[in-house]
Amino acid sequence: MFEARTSFQPAIFPNGHLPLDVRVEALLFVAEEPPTIAQLARALEVPAEAIEEALNVLQERLRERGLRLQRQRDRVQLVTAPEIAEDVRRFLGLSGGARLSTAALETLAIIAYRQPITRAEIEAIRGVNCEGVLRTLLAKGLIEEVGRAEGPGRPIRYGTTMLFLQHFGLHSLADLPPLDGVTMEEPAL
User: What does CATH list as the number for 20-85?
Assistant: First the structure.
């Protein structure tokens, strides 16, 4: 048996507009790529602070629903709740997907906790060449090039993607489990 819920009806303001959180939700629903806070603010002709507040309201409203807000740096998107991943897989006829190797998981963890990070820095931590693993993670869309480091050769810096957050059921990098001696903040790129 399922439990029927009454639907939430947002108030319509005198000027005919729905509340800002509802309007933000609509834009996130139709966005092809995760938009930035600035893009949402421009589209809705409001300050970025108002978008942040609307996202907080929306996140609270979605807490009991099948969707979640996912944020990385200044980008945001709607995703399905990780708790219903199996239902979604079954509905879409998807298999569990290919598993990541131990080397890929180790490298991905290093990137997630230390981003932005260069290949040389990853190799110094792991103690082995990780060129192939980085290629695999890039191909799977779990990491991306996020810029270049200063210094000789200006090496590529890597960071995780929105797909990484989705794959591991995270709303943001702040949801990563604490690691002794490492504090997580959204990286400023």
Answer: 1.10.10.10
